Amino acid sequence: MTTQQNFFDFTRASFGITRTEKLLDKINAVAPWEDIEKDILMQRDKGYGGVGRPNTSIVKLLKCLFLQGMYNLSDPEIEDQLRDRMSFQKFVGVSAAEDIPDETTICKFRNELAEMGFQENIFTKTQFMLAEMGFTVKEGHIQDGTIIESSKGKKNKKGENTRDPDATFLKKNGETYCGYKGHIETDIKAGFIMNTTYTTASVHDSQQQDALMLGEETEGYGDSAYGMSNNKNEYYEAHGIKVQFHEKGVRGKPLTYLQKEMNRIKSNIRAKVEHPFAWIKVRYMYTKTRYRGIMKNSMHWFFICAIYNFERIARQYA
């Protein structure tokens, strides 16, 4: 999917390679773009047509979505950045003389993937890669969830609320949030995202325990929210999964010194699950929803999780 170099490419090479270009080159080398393209074509009824201009390849549009998630760019911004940044042009496989995908083409392509429910397929590619590299959850897993806020909305002139109809409310530490939740499971060593789900904010973290399980876990870590059901804990123990959830004090029965020390030890291990959230919310600046509806926001979440795994693999192993 590379393009032929022209005189401008050779000229700019004399200025050296930037850190962004080095990173994107590594990601280009590890991401299975062609495999994802084949899967998209298999899900289409009549091949590639009807979404944007016909001369825009699927791989180029996938890379545009990748850059959008990685650098928190809107559709107009990614089009402008492709025209302005040489590192982006090289990554996508276009040059200044070629026809760069416009914002409408990128938007339609993303909507098509969301309607096909293709977001989980893209994330699954990273699961296969991690399994081939020997990363599993057999030695232990960590589960956690994070809130992705959306606007609480306001009344318009017609008296209708502009809030996202799929978003729900959650009260945490005395504050009320509106939006969704991203749930992840990581391994206890490298901190890769091994599995993920996306729900509305009102869904309790413990309700996603079973959905995140991959069937290979032998030890599980989580905060006190995951240890609230004694029946579920006993079920896991009976099936060979040792639970290491935080204990929580209640009124009239505070935690003992030993329980506090055990929580501290568990926190040192459980901190690994916070690393992906730090990347997602700080590096990728994904703290608030960009779209309306759980379908499009779920697509964005799975794509962000795939980006995190691809970038981690590229930085450490490419």
Give your account of this protein's structure.
With 318 residues, the protein is an alpha/beta fold. It has two domains: 7-116, no CATH class; 122-291, Nucleotidyltransferase, domain 5 (2-Layer Sandwich), CATH 3.30.420. 47% of the residues lie in helices and 14% in strands. The chain is built from 13 helices and six strands. It has helices at 7-13, 19-30, 33-43, 58-71, 75-84, 86-92, 103-116, 119-132, 209-212, 230-238, 257-270, 274-283, 294-317; strands spanning 141-149, 168-172, 175-187, 193-200, 219-222, 242-245. Strands 1, 2, 3, 4, 5 and 6 form a six-stranded mixed beta sheet that branches. Helix 2 crosses helix 13. The radius of gyration is 22 Å and the shape is globular.
- Please state the CA-atom Rg, rounded to the nearest Å: 22 Å
What's the architecture of the largest domain in CATH terms?
Answer: 2-Layer Sandwich
> What's the story with the biggest beta sheet?
6 strands, mixed
| Strand content range | 5-15%
Number of domains: 2
Based on secondary structure, the structural category is alpha/beta
Order of helices and strands: HHHHHHHHEEEEHEHEHHH
Spatial shape: globular
Q: Give the overall pLDDT as a whole number.
A: 85
Instruction: Give the N-terminus to C-terminus distance in angstroms.
Output: 19 Å
Question: What's the layout of helices and strands?
Answer:
Layout: H1 7-13, H2 19-30, H3 33-43, H4 58-71, H5 75-84, H6 86-92, H7 103-116, H8 119-132, E1 141-149, E2 168-172, E3 175-187, E4 193-200, H9 209-212, E5 219-222, H10 230-238, E6 242-245, H11 257-270, H12 274-283, H13 294-317
Parallel strand pairs: 1-5, 5-6
Antiparallel strand pairs: 1-3, 2-3, 3-4
